[in-house]
């Protein structure tokens, strides 16, 4: 498995496991799993976030179909053990990676959502430079509510301090019809940095220099984003939102409008994926556009 590691620390197979918590109250460790079918008709995501200093976990699960959006959001989930199994009163969620940087299997059993899905790596591992985090583009197979599913997505793992109530960001991941996986992220810091971005095709993942993004809004809802991959801008349009509201221990409120989206490159390729535009208090003071 090829690792494209942009960080100042080397990623190792140990990083697939849980990390020792830092001392900061906002230290957290999270795992994301996105998926979308080839035709964009079925999509969803799962996130498990551990907050050891709060003595609880956040668990999110979402499914988007033609019938609408079904979500399960639990911000008082019990902290799992090392096997990352969350056992709550009305659901059980499992997260298993038997081989580091290899296939990951996620299960959910509840009254309204049932997943049994596997993320099979498609093109290597991408390690961030600006925070301890890595992303893995994947093929995704399994069942949803007992119905077979075949599609694509991305899984990621991060650890460290994450202050949801002070920093806005954009994150986007998709697969195009020609098999190209794309990924880009930028935070709104008031300056441009070497943002985490990659393109992957035919099993080869490469870091992309010069990525940035610009978003237009309809009220508070993102209407369109242009991902500026050098040489081929990609337009992203939301299809369906699966938002989450985040309240801090001090009562601050942040909004997290995450959406399954349609993607179109300027050379005519299309595809589907997920984009998030995080909106903490005062986010309007910043803009999702290059400076």
Automatic annotation (TrEMBL):
Organism: Nonomuraea fuscirosea
Residue ranges of every copy of the DUF7065 domain listed in the record: 13-162
Coiled coil: none
Xref: InterPro entries: DUF7064, DUF7065
Segments forming domain DUF7064: 164-281
Name listed for the protein in its UniProt record: Tocopherol cyclase-like protein
Top-level division of the source organism's lineage: Bacteria
One Pfam family hit: DUF7065
